[in-house]
């Protein structure tokens, strides 16, 4: 099976949840492709990626699309979470600094991280979604993790970058999506 990513952190998370079943990433197969995410949702973008990689390899593929959403601004940055990097650079900021700046402008600091995973094997399309809720921080809190872990305060007050990898893997949006997908694949006899 292939996980359509070159992000080793995402790959490790998925492999742990799938009990270290052999899951390859794009780098393992010498695939260097920039897939244009033209969908209107996390699900559509994940499906585009899964189908694209399957068509190249003919190996069952899992793809994800994930991002952050501010409750006060529906769909922001949403499916554009990774693409706002360009806006950030124009302002001399990192993506996380831009998100913190946006959070400071809002009355409602609540955010959620959403992950959609899609499995495609040329015939079956199986998807799942996971959500992690919290609030945007007022500054970065470096530590463990990656992405927006350093700016994500859980509802219990902990910063995601300050919890262990094992703790994160039990609560993250990707964890919830991965567990649901694994169960669906097992029920269909695909895993």
List the helices and strands and how they pair.
Blueprint: E1 2-3, H1 8-17, E2 24-25, H2 42-57, E3 61-70, E4 73-77, H3 85-90, H4 95-104, E5 110-120, E6 125-136, E7 152-154, H5 165-168, H6 173-187
Structural overview:
- With 191 residues, the protein is an alpha/beta fold.
- It has a single domain, classed as Maf protein (Alpha-Beta Complex), CATH 3.90.950.10.
- It contains 6 helices and 7 strands.
- Strands 1, 2, 3, 4, 5, 6 and 7 form a 7-stranded mixed β-sheet that branches.
- Helix 1 crosses helix 6.
- The protein starts with a strand and ends with a helix.
Net shape: globular
The residue ranges in which pLDDT falls below 50 over 5 or more consecutive positions are: none
Return the CATH topology.
Answer: Maf protein
The radius of gyration over CA amounts to 17 Å
> Between the first and last Cα atoms, what is the distance in angstroms?
10 Å
What composes the largest sheet?
7 strands, mixed
Q: Architecture, CATH level 2? A: Alpha-Beta Complex
- Name of the level-1 CATH class: Alpha Beta
Which structural category fits the helices and strands?
alpha/beta
The SSE order reads EHEHEEHHEEEHH
The count of β-strands is 7
What does the average pLDDT come to? Answer: 93
Q: What's the domain count? A: 1
Number of helices: 6
Proportion in β-strands: 15-25%
Helix coverage percent? 25-40%
Brief digest:
This protein is α/β, with parallel strands linked by helices. 32% of the residues lie in helices and 24% in strands.
């Amino acid at each position: 099976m292939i996980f359509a990513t070159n992000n080793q952190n995402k790959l490790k998370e998925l492999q742990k949840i799938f009990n270290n079943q052999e899951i390859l990433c794009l780098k393992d197969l010498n695939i260097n492709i920039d897939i244009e995410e033209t969908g209107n949702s996390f699900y559509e973008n994940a499906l585009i990626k899964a189908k694209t990689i399957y068509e190249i390899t003919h190996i069952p593929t899992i793809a994800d699309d994930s991002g952050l959403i501010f409750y006060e601004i529906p769909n922001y940055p949403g499916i554009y979470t990774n693409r706002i990097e360009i806006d950030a650079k124009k302002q001399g900021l990192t993506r996380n600094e831009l998100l913190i700046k946006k959070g400071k402008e809002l009355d409602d600091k609540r955010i959620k991280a959403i992950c959609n995973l899609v499995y495609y094997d040329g015939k079956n399309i199986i998807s799942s979604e996971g959500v992690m809720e919290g609030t945007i921080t007022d500054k970065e809190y470096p530590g463990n993790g990656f992405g927006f872990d350093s700016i994500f305060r859980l509802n219990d007050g902990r910063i995601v970058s300050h919890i262990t990898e094992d703790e994160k893997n039990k609560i993250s949006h990707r964890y919830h999506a991965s567990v649901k997908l694994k169960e669906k694949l097992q029920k269909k006899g695909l895993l």
